[in-house]
Input
Amino acid sequence: MSTRVLVLNSGSSSVKYQLLDMRDRSRLASGLVERIGERTSLVRHTPLVSGGKTRERTGPVTDHDAALKAMAEELAFDGLGLDSPELAAIGHRVVHGGMHFTEPTVVDDAVLAEIERLIPVAPLHNPANLTGIRTATALRPDLPQVAVFDTAFHTTMPESAARYAIDVQTADEHRVRRYGFHGTSHAYVSRETARLLGKAPEDVNVIVLHLGNGASASAVRGGRCVDTSMGLTPLEGLVMGTRSGDMDPAVIFHLMRVGEMSADEIDTLLNKKSGLVGLCGDNDMREIRRRVDAGDEQAKLAFDIYIHRLKKYIGAYYAVLGRVDAVAFTAGVGENAAPVREAAVAGLTELGLAVDAERNGARGDGPRLISPAGARVAVAVVPTDEEMEIATQTYALAGKRN
Output
């Protein structure tokens, strides 16, 4: 049986990819095509077998079709071409699947049409995801193209968590509800946290904190999501790199009436000019911490607001779950920013939460505990691996069809 899976993450101006062999879950190659449509496009490819070195080239990559063809050329150079009979399927990250898609799905015309219908609630992501699927299908029409949805893991939320308190008919007509995102990360990290504790996922309650430029929290009871911080779009919830997170909706009306701002201007403000960058001009936590350590009061305020919101969600999800076995930090900030982890649980010893300073400060590549020995609630750093999660789900589905 063919055992290789190509994972594609198609953004509006970039394509990230990994080729994996699911026999031993090894990575064969990874790469990135960015600044698609510009004269200064970059193709970066890294073969991950036989000590291969990263190759880079610049020049115009006109569209996603050209980007995937550039990827195919790089893979072929290493003897890993898309025409290989060992390629079992291509897995695609799709950001928004609504309530219709609750699990990975082999793409057909009906699936494409539904993803397209969801564009109004994911205008930055679903169009690019669709382009990636269509281009990959043209390159290998004989292979299963599998869509893995960011929202799928969160479809287990009860209606009490998923519904907004607005008119039901209006909400249903326009499909306004809380969907959640980063689902592949939350699914992977919650399972890996259970493994770290030596338990089955169904026996563990975990608060997962996915902290990157985009950030989200989830409450996972026995392997199933029961609440998450992002909502109809990825704007709700935690303070993020450029997104505001939770905010009084009336701020929008105020800015329209008093600030005479248009809907598009407010959309840009809240999604691209808010969060950490809006508060202090930087969205890189490393730079913010450098500024804090240098005595910069604006950076300190931004950091404090970020932590305050994070701590509120930890407490809220503790209440939702009732019993918490672990809090898991993941993604770029969660995995690498020890001061964020320390501050997020500071003062929560009555809830059984604390970090050991030495463990928290130590660097490591794999899942690890940073709470003191014998702590009532484990605090962990669990590196996320969304590509492996997508590959695993894709391969499981492709295997059923073979």
Remarks:
- The CA atoms of residues 353 and 377 lie 6 Å apart.
- The chain is about 40% helix and 20% strand.
- The longest strand covers residues 26-34.
